[in-house]
What we know:
Layout: H1 17-42, H2 52-57, H3 59-72, E1 75-81, E2 84-90, E3 99-104, E4 113-121, E5 124-128, E6 136-143, E7 149-155, E8 160-164
Antiparallel strand pairs: 1-2, 1-8, 2-5, 3-4, 3-6, 4-5, 6-7
Amino acid sequence: MTTRTIDQHVVRWYREPWPWILIGLPASAVIAGIVTLVIAVRNEDGLVAEDYYKQGLAINQVIEREQRAVQMGLKAQMLVADNNIRIHLDGSGERPGRIVVRFVHPTRAGEDREIELTPVAPGWYQAVLPDLAQGRWRLQIEDGDTTWRLTGVWTTNQKSLLISAVDVS
């Protein structure tokens, strides 16, 4: 009687691809969750205002300021050149001693900038333009006493912009 030896090639489990694929899928989901958590913790959420309740109550005051700009017939011609911003203010009423311009980023409150323009000639105001990220910005132009306000949209490649008071009622 002869005995045959069967040569069986035994491969350890960690040398097979399928266990690693089955381990890799849940492991990649855990790693992606950790990365998402790190991103959420490190980056501020600029869309949520801390004083949202006060802002909600103040909306009527904002509407009144925009209505006042309509009553005064205000128009602002903004010119940008050589890193300077010049605004010509036209309309009835007394010219303010200074005007404030807010550049409001559409999604990140941390990027918002505010500058104060001083008069350089009758009806003309000027200041240095702050460094702004490329793209669209909401503009808010108001007098130093915050009695009126003009709003508009400006892109950083625009050299001029005309903003007129719009009836919001």
